């Protein structure tokens, strides 16, 4: 009995320590289809200007997502107004169609690298805007309403 209590205490301590490096994390739920003009916005304050952080884009998708990859346009606006824009591509499925995300149900969660070892140069508020830039092969027009992305998020984790 005594060993079980100690083991339970150790498990609780390990579980509580695993999230200590997360400086910011937020998800936004997408309605019925992610419109190509619908930016998903995240506002956060710089954790500090001394340490380095990894930034991630987090996506949840279900079986309605009909692509093997995803293209995103991501803007990061600094407190002084400077904007950095990145066009990013991520694989979402293996060639055989199996989803790459984690999860036991039809809903898969993907933690995707956005920026590595970032040091925030300015104190104050930052804004990250995420748009999808999906197109069907041979089609110049983008996909108007992207189905299957249920949630979009970002997380900022302090380097250990």
From TrEMBL:
<keyword id="KW-0732">Signal</keyword>
<keyword id="KW-0449">Lipoprotein</keyword>
<dbReference type="Pfam" id="PF14109">
    <property type="entry name" value="GldH_lipo"/>
</dbReference>
<protein>
    <submittedName>
        <fullName>Gliding motility lipoprotein GldH</fullName>
    </submittedName>
</protein>
<feature type="signal peptide">
    <location>
        <begin position="1"/>
        <end position="25"/>
    </location>
</feature>
<dbReference type="InterPro" id="IPR020018">
    <property type="entry name" value="Motility-assoc_lipoprot_GldH"/>
</dbReference>
């Amino acid at each position: 009995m005594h060993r079980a209590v100690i083991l339970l205490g150790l498990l609780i301590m390990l579980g509580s320590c695993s999230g200590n490096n997360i400086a910011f994390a937020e998800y936004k739920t997408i309605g019925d289809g992610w419109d190509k003009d619908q930016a998903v916005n995240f506002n956060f304050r710089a954790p500090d200007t001394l340490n380095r952080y990894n930034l991630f884009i987090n996506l949840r998708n279900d079986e309605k997502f009909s692509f093997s990859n995803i293209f995103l346009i991501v803007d990061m606006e600094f407190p002084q107004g400077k904007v950095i824009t990145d066009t990013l591509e991520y694989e979402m499925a293996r060639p055989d169609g199996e989803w790459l995300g984690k999860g036991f149900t039809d809903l898969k969660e993907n933690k995707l690298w956005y920026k590595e070892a970032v040091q925030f140069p300015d104190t104050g508020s930052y804004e990250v805007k995420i748009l999808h830039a999906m197109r069907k092969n041979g089609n110049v027009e983008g996909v108007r309403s992207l189905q299957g992305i249920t949630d979009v998020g970002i997380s900022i984790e302090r380097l250990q």
